[in-house]
Amino acid sequence: MKMILSLKPVSIQVLKALKDASGIDANNLASQMRLDYVVVMGAINELAEHDLGYFKEEEATELVLTDEGNDYATKGLPESRLFKLLFDLKVKEIELNELKAKATKQLGIDEKIFFLALGNLKQARWTSQAKVGDSVKVLVLKQEYEEKQEEQLLKLLNVEDPLDVREIPAEFKEYVEQFKKRKLITEKKYTKRTLHLTEIGKNLDSSKIGTLQEVTRLSTEMIKSGSWKDATLKAYDVTKPGAHLNAGKIHPVVEIINKVREIFFSMGFIEIRGPIVESAFFNFDALFQPQDHPAREMHDTFYLSNPAKANLPPDKFVKAVAEVHENGGNTGSTGWGYKWNKEIAMQTVLRTHTTATTVRQLGKAIEEGVKLPLKVFSIDRVYRNEKVDFKHLAEFMQVEGIVIGERLSLADLRGTLVEFYNKMGFEKIITRPGFFPYTEPSLEISVFSKELGKWMEIGGSGIFRPEVCTPWGIKEPVRVLAWGQGLERIAMLRLKRNDIRDLYRNPLSWLRKAPYPRL
User: N or C terminus of the chain with fewer C-beta within 10 Å?
Assistant: First the structure.
């Protein structure tokens, strides 16, 4: 019989198996054939070399039982076991403590699990509770015992092979989130590989395939005896690319952060950091934001109960800020015309912007007699009570810088902005008049995105108002230039992501292919 080609024995086995089950998961096939997963993948790669087979990759999520979930899959949910006990006792009502004692003795469940099971039975309306005299009675509402439907999902998951979340029957999907909250199951993301035969592989007569016995490694004995001369040595194609290695690398967002930091350093800036837990004084009051401003409400800001109060700076600064709010102080402004409240200023918040960090620098610069001009920047996390969607996060990064110096103007501000964004890789930058609460005049910044082919607003800027600067001892001719933007907005442009959540939920299929940002 004339042989068409020769393959390794394991590749012939995989070929025959795929004739009956093309499109099977590689892990499942390895389990069925009792072979190592790596051996199966090596076989499919050999089939691919001869255009007989191939594999497809996709990101998948499997559901895995926790230790507690495994226990419940075997013994049953505690609520089912508790109801079975009630059913076996043949009672319509029973005193609560008596039932707890019987459950502990006969079922071996502790008090915490007992009340959890009782609560679930009450929620399912299988039982209810009523106070009779000085005791609490458990009333049985359901007439017969039956296995709860969600237990079937536990049994489905209690198998040797993991279950893909897409394979969950529709009638069980509602219980997945419920079990995740109860910490009975966890999700595990992995790369799923399905094996397929080409048309050539499907039509190939297996009887015409020869068995290839290749020598992949020369031993000392083979060299001494000379037997290697008669052996079939495995051929190596030096022009063929090696296997793709998913090597570790720096996250693309971290690369952008490092680049932003590098640009600021090259422009003579100093990096500063500030506390995440901030006082309302620095977060709002020092920026001339009135204490009844809507942005201070709970629906915009995360307030803390522990610690509930923050320390304020020295009294002279607190007094100066209070006067600015009440009557304008020495700024020539009329202020907001209300009685400033120190207690409100001492409230603690998760900072809503890093401007709280840069405004701290104003007083520090004058107090310490820092030589001007002073240029500082900050890259740090901020928090806002936002609804998370494809373009909003409750926790994100903010980038901003300030320049303190004499006789600074909008021309200096615009020149600094153009230089920064040019170094960030944006060739076209425009600024136009805008409004921001603590700068006047203010400029909005837009850049042209080559990736999207359109202009995008990317941040705000301006000169700090006298009401912000004067309390810290900064007066004409000294002025403060300021600008900032969300880091994620830059990252989405540079990394071509349409969903801001991708930057932090880290889909592996993207991270493996994501190039280093060319900035």
Answer: N
